[in-house]
Amino acid sequence: MSRSSDRSVRVSFRVWRGLARPGWRRNVRLWARLVLGTLLVADLATALLVFKPWGGSRQDVEERLVGLREEAARRRQVVERLRDVVAKVEAARREADDFLQSYFLERRTVSSTVLGELDSMAKQAGLKQKEGSYLFEPIEGGEGLSMMTILASYEGSYGDLMHMLNLLDRSPRLLILSDLQAAPQASGQTLNVTMRLNAFVRDYKERPPGREAAQGEQTNL
User: Fold this and answer.
1) What torsion, rounded to 10 degrees, do the Cα atoms 33, 37, 40, 45 define?
2) Secondary structure in 3-state letters for 116-144
3) I need a labelling partner for 100 at 20 to 30 A (CA). Which of 60, 90, 194, 200 fits?
């Protein structure tokens, strides 16, 4: 056998012996991991260069800051408008509460208050009170609110009637004159007067004591 053939046999034997060693597969896996790691690092570097997650150039950062400032200014304007709306709503609520407290009478005292005031006005005007009645009716859409309708009859002169109307107009109560009828008696000097008045009431869950009428129940004066 020649020397070249002998050398080839020796190389082949060494390769076969190296492959036959128990750790050769582990070495291949190690090299494969190194290659994959190198490729991953290269991909990450390329992505960083393309997407610039650290903020990009100075111009890009300045443009972003300008956009953020504009967005913050818009949000501040929205907040200010909302504050104005809330303030107006609160003011309207307080005014509504004041109006209810001033002009909507309590159910448990409305009869004595309004009827007593009408009686005082009639005496001051010189009218003689005759029969009358009143009833309560709920206001549609107004929870806890009712309207008191008063039918009152008087007799007196035309001047007495004008005086009574003037007193009603200056009353601190919210008394609405919804109907007025006046007819002369046979003597011609005295008028028979019938008035329909409305007042507004804040209701209570329980029926008030005294001569208060229930909803829709008519009560004589």
Assistant:
1) -170
2) HHHHHHHHHHCCEEEEEEEEEEECCCCCC
3) 194
Distance CA 68, CA 189 (A): 85
Query: Would strands 145-156 and 176-184 be described as parallel, antiparallel, or unpaired?
Result: unpaired
Q: How confident is the model at residue 160 (pLDDT cuts 50, 70, 90)?
A: very high
Q: What is the dihedral sign for C-alpha 88, 89, 90, 94? A: positive
pLDDT value of residue 52? 56
Which of 205, 153, 156 lies closest to 181, judged by CA? 153
Place of tokens 């001569």: 211
Split at pLDDT 50, 70, 90, the class of 96 is: confident
CATH level 2 (architecture), domain 105-220:
2-Layer Sandwich (3.30)
Could you tell me the two tokens for 171?
Answer: 């009353």
DSSP category for residue 190: -
Residue 204 near residue 108, CB atoms below 8 Å: yes
Beta 191-202 vs 104-106: how paired, if at all? parallel
pLDDT the model gives residue 212? 46
Residue 201 · residue 105 · CB < 8 Å: yes
